[in-house]
Specification:
The chain starts with a helix and ends with a strand. 55% of the residues lie in helices and 18% in strands. A hairpin with a 5-residue loop joins strand 7 (228-231) and strand 8 (237-242). It folds into three domains: 2-159, no CATH class; 176-249, no CATH class; 340-490, Histidine kinase-like ATPase, C-terminal domain (Heat Shock Protein 90, 2-Layer Sandwich), CATH 3.30.565. It has 491 residues and is of the alpha+beta class. 20% of the residues are buried. The strands form four sheets. A five-stranded mixed sheet has the order 10-12-13-15-14. A four-stranded antiparallel sheet has the order 2-1-4-3, covered by helices on one side. A four-stranded antiparallel sheet has the order 6-5-8-7.
């Protein structure tokens, strides 16, 4: 039973360790996956920031190009004063139209009184109000043509304006996309001085609502990951501080939590085993008390019977011999129980003599329908033995055999040996045992008898295995045919 418990405990611990290793492996894999997500997110933010900067540079270049074309257009108009013939003027006007058409720039030309001369659909109207505001985003060009003061206003081309609107929307959502990320990364976007929060995500406001709290929070984030430097669309510099996701942080505690649960289970298992052991010891002590009463009952009852029988009769040597047997039995029982719980002394004694003594006492007190058969070798086999305890083992096995045969059958004892071991086979012709009973027959508290305490064979195993360093086991048992126990002792 103890071996089974230790085996179960060992398997439980082994499974727990395997589970811990597996959980730790999965935790590490999940942590790596989360780290990769954060890195990919940070890389995407950096690339998107570069895209925004490139877009800004592109539109700045387009704006410069349109300004250069308007400057060229104005220079050509100024040159009209120096042109002397109509052919050159016509050529210049064609060139002007080509420049304007190629850049698709909307222009308005006014005279000194702000009256529109170009385009023709607005000619004669005064440039003012909303139209003036719309064409005043860029610096106008002033020039003279044929002596008259003229002013050229222009605004970006339609395509440029549409692309610019798309870019403005893109830039507007840029910080929102940084903070409202799909991987739930806690993030803070601050200005170049790291004193103002431009955007935040997956963080409570009270974590950075004061300068001190903001500085402390940025320090914590920087300790986990280096901040990302951004160039925002308005040209200012910003820093993106971020830290690991909550899941990534919680995965660190999974192995520790599992170890804690394992420790709790180990403590509970320990107390359960200790409780079971205490209950087993209680059963053993109760069984010992019953066994003591049973062992002492037989010689005491015999002595009481002799006392009643001898009243008024002459005491003879035969009577004295029988009484001495019972007194010796009492002494033997006393010796047996005095040896339990301590290390008994072993002396080289005859195995056959010890078996004969045990059987001799039981044979005269058993049913005559039980036949005792012995087979001993010719040589006197002596091994380190405690005869009091060894005889107790033979008696326990013999009593169980008589009970199994229900008082009718043959009990056989065969003693044999080789160069290393002595074998004592104890067989009966009783009802036998099933395989499940054979596995538990030596367990403390296990008994197939209605009033049995399951102590006899348990004590027998302890005496043979622990005290004599031998073995006792079921060699053979078939239901309906009988059982053979074998005791193995070292020579």
């Amino acid at each position: 039973m103890n071996k089974a418990r230790w085996l179960i405990l060992s398997i439980t611990v082994l499974l727990a360790v395997v589970a811990l290793v597996e959980i730790n492996r999965v935790s590490i894999q999940m942590r790596k996956a989360e780290v990769e997500k954060v890195k990919l997110w940070a890389k995407a933010i950096s690339q998107k920031a570069q895209l925004v900067n490139y877009s800004e540079e592109f539109f700045a270049s387009v704006a410069r190009d349109e300004h250069r074309k308007m400057q060229l257009y104005t220079n050509i108009l100024r040159s009209f004063d120096r042109m002397g013939n109509d052919a050159d003027a016509d050529f210049s006007l064609d060139y002007v139209r080509y420049i304007v058409d190629s850049c698709e720039t909307a222009i308005i030309i006014t005279d000194a009184d702000s009256i529109i001369t170009v385009p023709s659909e607005w000619a004669g109207e005064k440039l003012e109000g909303r139209r003036l505001e719309e064409f005043s985003h860029n610096e106008p060009f002033h020039y003279r043509i044929w002596g008259m003061k003229m002013t050229l206003y222009y605004k970006e081309s339609k395509m440029y304006t549409e692309l610019r609107n798309v870019l403005d929307g893109f830039n507007k959502s840029f910080l929102e996309e940084i903070t409202n990320n799909g991987v739930l990364v806690p993030v803070l976007v601050v200005d170049s001085l790291q004193g103002e929060v431009l955007a935040s995500g997956n963080l409570a406001k009270d974590e950075f609502d004061t300068p001190e709290a903001l500085a402390a929070r940025l320090c914590e984030m920087e300790a986990e990951n280096d901040p990302i430097i951004l160039r925002l669309p308005d040209g200012q510099k910003a820093y993106v501080f971020y830290e690991n996701t909550p899941m990534l942080k919680s995965m660190r505690w999974v192995p520790i939590l599992y170890l804690f649960v394992l420790a709790v289970l180990m403590v509970i298992s320990y107390y359960l085993f200790r409780t079971a052991r205490t209950m087993e010891q209680n059963r053993i002590w109760v069984g010992m008390a019953k066994e003591t009463a049973h062992q002492l009952g037989t010689p005491i009852s015999s002595l009481m019977a002799w006392t009643q029988y001898l009243e008024g009769k002459t005491f003879t040597p035969e009577y004295a011999a029988e009484i001495n047997k019972d007194l010796n039995r009492l002494e033997t029982v006393t010796h047996r129980f005095s040896k339990i719980g301590s290390v008994p002394e072993l002396e080289y004694e005859s195995v056959c003599a010890a078996v004969s003594n045990a059987l001799g006492y039981l044979q005269t007190r058993s049913s005559r329908k039980v036949k005792f058969v012995t087979s001993f070798p010719e040589e006197d086999i002596r091994v380190p033995l405690n005869s009091y305890l060894f005889e107790w083992v033979i008696e326990n096995v013999c009593k169980n055999a008589i009970d199994a045969m229900e008082g009718v059958g043959t009990f056989t004892v065969v003693v044999s040996s080789d160069s290393r071991y002595v074998y004592v086979d104890l067989g009966d012709t009783g009802r036998g045992m099933s395989p499940s009973v054979q596995k538990r027959v030596f367990d403390s508290g296990f008994s197939t008898k209605p009033r049995g305490w399951g102590l006899g064979l348990s004590l027998a195993k302890r005496i043979i295995n622990d005290y004599h360093k031998g073995r006792i086991f079921v060699k053979y048992s078939v239901e309906g045919q009988g059982t053979v126990f074998r005791i193995v002792l070292r020579r």
